[in-house]
Amino acid sequence: MAVVNETTDLRRPLVEQKPLDDVGLESVLADGSLPYRRRMYLGACIEVKLLFRLALPAILVYLVNSGMGISARIFAGHLGGQELAAASIGNSCFSLVYGLMMGMGSAVETLCGQAYGAHRYDMLGVYLQRATIVLALVGLPMTVLYTFSYPLLLLLGEPKTVSYMASLYIAGLIPQIFAYAVNFTAQKFLQAQSVVVPSACISAAALLLQISLTWITVYVMDLGLMGIASVLTISWWFIVVAQTLYITTNQRFRHTWAGLSWRSFHGLWSFFQFSAGSAVMICLELWYSQILVLLAGLLKDPALSLDSLSICLSISVLSFMVSIGFNAAVSVRTSNELGAGNPKSAMFSAWTATSVSFVISIAEALAMLASRDYISYIFTADVDVAKAVSELCPFLAVTIILNGIQPVLSGVAVGCGWQTYVAYVNISCYYIVGIPVGCILGFTFDFQAKGIWTGMIGGTLMQTLILLYVTYRTDWDKEVEEARKRLDMWDDKKEPRQT
Fold it and tell me: Containing domain of residue 354, as a range?
């Protein structure tokens, strides 16, 4: 009987004789003895498990981080309509530095992810420190910019009362700039090593802390918008301190974190140049939707437009965070596989993550449409605002579906190091097509918020189609070679050179 079993085993492909957890994705995809459909099925089983193991905690991290801003808006909305408008404008303006820091942090994601896949562990800690220094230096001029937020908002044509309240709210957020500088680099350092659960737990604790303290400052201490902003800043610093302690005291990072090093001060300018493309790519994406809020302040009945659009965008952001979780997961997967020299696995990861996120986004859009008449009451009790939100929900549904694809493709771009190219695509689609068309429809043809949103959806659709085409046409063997060259160029043994 043993002979029969042994003979039977010899007739089966090697990859099917082992548990899937012990079989590499590249081995499955490259096994010519398996039928194509069988390879795709086994590959999907492996990849989906890996993606969800990374994406679910990452989704929680981004949902919680976004939820901190949304909860601040909810508390502001229950103070009054002008307070909600002020907090919405304040958060939209502050997304400038959020996008800048998050974008520059994605350079760490590319380098750390590919270095980890190539087993060059010693450079991860150096990249982390180098990026933190660069981001902190970039944060210095941003503090000056936000100090003068009141005259800048007036210059942009926002209502005087709302601008003044928003400037007070922004003042309370200024210390948050340097929390971002540490948080995003530490977050990418952990993600590159597929360590995401601790960040999720820390973020969840920060959200609970923020909600509790905000309730006290608003309803007990009566500190209003300043109290809301101050607690939001404190919560972000709680995340930073907790993540820093976790990295510096945990033995699991003994190969990737060797302590503070003077090597991190080498090549700061070169690192800044490399991360600038990442910053532009992410910033242009994050600012795109926030410009919608700023333009809404110039429409007829700006308070109603701002309130309805900010609620829709808050819902969109919650959905977007799911896609951002897959963005982080696919970035880790593609960068790790490219660093390890596995082109088939990198390609398979890219398309699997895109497909899964797309299906989820359709379900989210349908759920949102089913609750369109009631969902706004989470944020406000105003009936007029609820009606305006309901009318905008079809536009929101289309946005949610597009956001199920576009961020994941951006994650592939980060994993491959295409940030500069995608930045040019974003400029063309968003700022040459989307916003001008939206302004023409909204102001010239008087379609108001619906017109602005229609133009911006057009820009997002155009960008998504371009990224789909570029990903489809990618030579993944060439990307493996590019990853190897990039790691050699950024090897700390010599000063990096620009190409």
Answer: 34-489
